[in-house]
Amino acid sequence: MTTYENILTRVEGRAGVAQLNRPRALNALNRELMTELMTALEAFDADPAVGCMVVAGNDRAFAAGADIKAMAAATPAQMMTGSFIDLWDRLHHISKPVIAAVSGFALGGGCELAMACDMIIASETAQFGQPEINLGVIPGAGGTQRLTLAVGKALAMEMVLNGRTLSAEEALRAGLINRVYPVEVYLEEAIRLANAIAARAPVAVRLAKEAVNASFEMSLRAGLDHERRLFYLLFSTDDQKEGMDAFINKRPAHWRGQ
Ligand code: DAK
């Protein structure tokens, strides 16, 4: 079992949970933390005992952004070559679903990390924002792209140009997040959701994630063709035969992940 210094990991049921753990810096995302987080998520992705993952912070902060102290003196070349970007890109290669459980601050890179996950469950105290403009920069890990896709141009412009933050309720109304719960239970609910997804046909879950994510990258025509090919592919699995037989015979399905 790998030991980490900046995150805590555990498996609850079939949910792999990775909790950011730099509370004194409001979970600011430095290279060490991001390296550990990606390593942990890749380990969960490879672990057959895990079907879905949860990335969380603590009740006060999911993450208050990339570590400003670590990047304040950086040159463009250091930002480009320091492997920081490669680290973030590793998240896109995780094939099992990843749920962000967000409470308190999700700012800058914290908001971008949550948006790079597949779903966001929030506590009532969550705050989402891209305050980079206050530092004389702009978002660099998807904050101008994923945020705009999620909430639309009007709100994204206000957040990116003027540092406006969204409360959990506003984020829910804007379509940025899935659900809001009291702070006492949001993490439990995120883990419950992860376990519900982990109980479903594993190959179909992976391909479902891939198909939805493809909609951000492809034209509608190409996306529809891609979806159809994945749909056909699932007819090669035992789980498709099992799922349809279980429906016809009015019994629960037993997924084998094959
Ligand atoms: N970095 C480093 N330390 C941070 C931090 C951050 N982002 N946010 C908070 N901290 C530290 C504070 O410095 C303080 O440490 P000490 O002074 O006690 O040593 C401690 O956490 C507690 O913070 P505060 O004392 O400020 O707490 P408050 O409750 O008063 O305020 C706050 C909370 C969240 C409103 C405030 O801390 C704040 O405004 N934080 C900065 C938020 C922010 O500007 N975030 C955006 C950072 S830029 C990329 C990938 C990612 C990114 C870019 C590119 N690539 C892959 C290319 C991301 C960029 C960013 O996120």
Structure description:
The protein has 258 residues and is an alpha/beta fold. It folds into 2 domains: 7-198, 2-enoyl-CoA Hydratase, Chain A, domain 1 (Alpha-Beta Complex); 202-248, Orthogonal Bundle (Lyase 2-enoyl-coa Hydratase, Chain  A, domain 2), CATH 1.10.12.10. The chain is built from 12 helices and 10 strands. Strands 1-2-3-5-7-10 form a 6-stranded mixed beta sheet, with helices on both faces. A hairpin with a 2-residue loop joins strand 1 (7-12) and strand 2 (15-20). Helix 1 (31-46) runs parallel beside helix 4 (84-90) and helix 10 (202-214) runs antiparallel to helix 11 (220-233). The longest helix is centred in the first third of the chain and has 16 residues, at 31-46. The model has no long low-confidence stretch (mean pLDDT 96). It binds 4-(N,N-dimethylamino)cinnamoyl-COA (DAK). 4-(N,N-dimethylamino)cinnamoyl-COA binds at residues 25-26, 28, 64-69, 84-85, 88, 105, 107-109, 131-132, 135, 140-141.
